């Protein structure tokens, strides 16, 4: 099955959106100091998007499974949360591990990326988990080359995560991206038969996002119906980039 092929102009616009995403993430990450409110980080990112003339695909987003429209421009998922945490009055503390996920749209084209940051000094076990997740993301990106399949991308991510004895968040992964933030196909974090059916060509754009857990990958939803947390309550790391497949190799559209 073929993924959509973006023109050079479309990729340039997605790169613009990606730069806004990177700026929003950097601003929020810099403000993630002990005592900072999650809602304050979201306000900072809103300002970045607003000043860039970009819109937020997160704000008001309500997929079929969600009980309410999303309330921010960032997903902020501390500690036990893996993804989809809502901005709130919760304050981050020294030693917290915070996933920050941002999206932006420019002229109808989208970027989506996430970082996980330590609040204050990292716990060694958290630093190790983060290093693995970042290496897995880099491996997945490096595998997104002409002629490879999405199963190759998944296998590259999976090899790093398994090597270090961690698990993937079950039932979650990356996705196609372009005119919408979430497009088919799924970009699984391990090799699958579905992934093997999608061969990559120049101009394809995908969001690659390892979600790495110390436990077995099982999860539950918070009472708000949005935030996904590890069933065993242990910590997780989530990192993401939007990537274009090009004749010259993978291009990270959400790089700073
Ligand atoms: Mg995504």
Automatic annotation (TrEMBL):
Keywords linked to the UniProt accession: Aminopeptidase, Hydrolase, Metal-binding, Protease
InterPro entries: Creatinase/aminopeptidase-like, Pept_M24, Pept_M24_MAP, Pept_M24A_MAP1
Record carries keyword Transmembrane: no
Residues the entry annotates as binding substrate: 84, 182
Cofactor(s) the protein requires to work: Co(2+); Zn(2+); Mn(2+); Fe(2+)
Gene Ontology CC terms: cytosol
Pfam families for this protein: Peptidase_M24
Superkingdom of origin: Bacteria
Catalysed reactions listed for this entry: Release of N-terminal amino acids, preferentially methionine, from peptides and arylamides
Keyword Isomerase carried by entry: no
GO biological process: proteolysis
Gene Ontology MF terms: initiator methionyl aminopeptidase activity; metal ion binding; metalloaminopeptidase activity
Enzyme category, top tier: hydrolase
Its EC number(s): 3.4.11.18
Peptidase M24 domain boundaries: 12-247
Binding site for a divalent metal cation 1: 101, 112, 240
Transmembrane segments: none
Cofactor note as given: Binds 2 divalent metal cations per subunit. Has a high-affinity and a low affinity metal-binding site. The true nature of the physiological cofactor is under debate. The enzyme is active with cobalt, zinc, manganese or divalent iron ions. Most likely, methionine aminopeptidases function as mononuclear Fe(2+)-metalloproteases under physiological conditions, and the catalytically relevant metal-binding site has been assigned to the histidine-containing high-affinity site.
Sequence positions that bind a divalent metal cation 2: 112, 175, 209, 240
PANTHER family with a match to the protein in the record: METHIONINE AMINOPEPTIDASE
Role summary: Removes the N-terminal methionine from nascent proteins. The N-terminal methionine is often cleaved when the second residue in the primary sequence is small and uncharged (Met-Ala-, Cys, Gly, Pro, Ser, Thr, or Val). Requires deformylation of the N(alpha)-formylated initiator methionine before it can be hydrolyzed.
Subunit structure as annotated in this protein's UniProt entry: Monomer.
Record-linked HAMAP family: MetAP_1
Protein family: Belongs to the peptidase M24A family. Methionine aminopeptidase type 1 subfamily.
Protein name: Methionine aminopeptidase
């Amino acid at each position: 099955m073929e993924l959509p092929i973006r023109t050079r102009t479309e990729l340039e616009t997605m790169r613009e959106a990606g730069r806004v995403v990177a700026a929003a993430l950097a601003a929020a990450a810099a403000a993630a100091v002990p005592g900072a409110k999650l809602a304050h980080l979201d306000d900072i990112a809103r300002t970045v998007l607003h000043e860039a003339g970009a819109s937020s695909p997160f704000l008001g987003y309500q997929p079929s499974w969600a009980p309410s429209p999303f309330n921010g421009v960032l997903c902020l998922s501390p500690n036990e949360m893996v993804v989809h945490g809502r901005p709130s009055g919760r304050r981050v503390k020294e030693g917290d591990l915070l996933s920050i996920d941002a999206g932006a749209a420019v002229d109808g084209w989208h970027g989506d990326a996430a970082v996980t940051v330590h609040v204050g000094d990292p716990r060694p076990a958290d630093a190790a988990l983060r290093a693995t997740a970042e290496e897995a993301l880099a491996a997945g990106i490096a595998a997104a080359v002409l002629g490879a399949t999405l199963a190759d991308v998944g296998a590259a991510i999976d090899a790093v995560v398994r090597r270090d004895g961690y698990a993937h968040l079950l039932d979650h992964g990356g996705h196609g991206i372009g005119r919408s933030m979430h497009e088919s196909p799924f970009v699984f974090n391990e090799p699958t038969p579905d992934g093997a059916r999608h061969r990559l060509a120049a101009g394809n754009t995908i969001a690659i996002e390892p979600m790495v857990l110390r436990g077995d990958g099982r999860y539950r939803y918070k009472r708000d119906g949005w935030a996904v947390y590890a069933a065993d309550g242990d910590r997780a790391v989530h990192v993401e980039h939007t990537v274009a497949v090009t004749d010259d190799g993978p291009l990270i559209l959400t790089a700073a």
